[in-house]
Amino acid sequence: MALPFELGTTVTAIGALGTASFALVDTTKIARNGGISNSGFSCIESAVQQFFPDATRKPQSPRSSDERKSAGNERKLLDILHGHWINGSALGDQKAVAKSLIKLRLTPLTAEDFAAATSVDGKVLSQVASHMTEGVELSPQEVNALGRFDLALTAILDEGYQRADQKYRNSARALASVVAVVLAVLGGLSVTENVAAYFWSAEMGRAVLCGLLATPLAPIAKDLANAVATGVKVAQTFKR
To answer: What's the structural domain count of the chain?
Structure first.
């Protein structure tokens, strides 16, 4: 009955390796643009670009003063959203901020692009923007158009943030898996007696396997090890 106890210890060790790998991946956040935290923001940027086709965080050289002002405002918008994203704010809060900032930029000049993105009548949405700026009461038709615009904006941002979150989580897991494999191989190398024979050996293969299992086992390693130990106790009870 030695195998189950060794299995529990092995599971715990592999889980600890996965935890360490995630921690090392987390340290990349000190890099420029937030490291691994930056992963997924391109999905949010794509959602914003449906309303501001030329929006980008990359430096540009617009020709006219109006273009420079517009590009600066759009970049500032993306910088604000990027700051919230790499800081790991709650998705609901981030979407609320993005929605508010985009709606604040609803003007007669941006109404056409906004209408195209949300399938709302551009002329009516332009009137909505003008009346909201002037403080004029909206007509029922304009209220309806504004409501449809709001719903479409919410859906577009929700899709962008959900895709971004999925991409970030998958990227973090993939990078953590690579780190875990490297650590496992280096760990096996450190205890082997024959360094030359270690590479591409069965021992190295077991190290790679442990590295690959580390990331998915990390969140459940403790529970799984306890389950193995409990199973052993049950088996011993029946044996008696």
So the answer is: 1
Task: Catalogue the long-range contacts made by 147-156 (C-beta closer than 8 Å, 24 or more residues apart).
Answer: 148/118, 148/119, 148/120, 149/114, 149/115, 149/118, 149/120, 149/125, 150/103, 152/117, 152/118, 152/119, 152/120, 153/51, 153/99, 153/102, 153/103, 153/118, 154/95, 154/99, 156/47, 156/50, 156/117, 156/118
Q: Which residues 6+ apart lie within 8 Å of 107 measured at CB?
A: 129, 133
Other CB atoms within a 10 A radius of the CB of residue 238 amount to 6
Structural domain of 8: 2-239
Mind listing the pLDDT tens digit for each residue in 2-61? 444 466 677 788 888 888 898 899 898 888 788 899 999 999 999 999 999 888 887 665
Q: Please state the pTM of the whole predicted model.
A: 0.81
Nearest to 56 by CA among 38, 72, 36, 33: 72
Contact 177, 196 (CB under 8 A): no
Residue linked to tokens 């199973």: 231
